[in-house]
Amino acid sequence: MIYRQVVFSQLEVLQDGTLQLRLDKQVVDGESVLSHEYHRTSIPPGTSVDMQMDAVEVHLAQMGWPAVGDQARARVLRVAAVEHSPEKVRAYRARVAQVSNAR
User: Fold this and answer.
1) CA 67: distance to chain centroid?
2) For residue range 19-67, what is the model confidence (pLDDT) as tens digits?
3) pTM above 0.90, yes or no
4) Distance, CA of 95 to CA of 29 (rounded, Å)
5) What is the pairing mode between strands 32-43 and 2-13?
């Protein structure tokens, strides 16, 4: 039976606290992956993880892919709870403002 699945394959934390997610969109036959391609998103400090994950799931659905799943979302939320501290959010926003003002 051939089916599509989305696998949460990588979560990376950048120095500024931005979370980078890589999802692996796979076409599977039994236990064999017939094809795959990556879908990526990032979540800067101060951004709602739920809103970003909702947007990713809408985008995946528009392309005919299933949802990422609650376990993946829970994992991202756990990491964000640690990495998106109030200090990191303030520092990130200050850096963004500084870059915007320099233009």
Assistant:
1) 12
2) 999 999 999 999 999 999 999 999 999 999 999 999 999 999 999 999 9
3) no
4) 47
5) unpaired
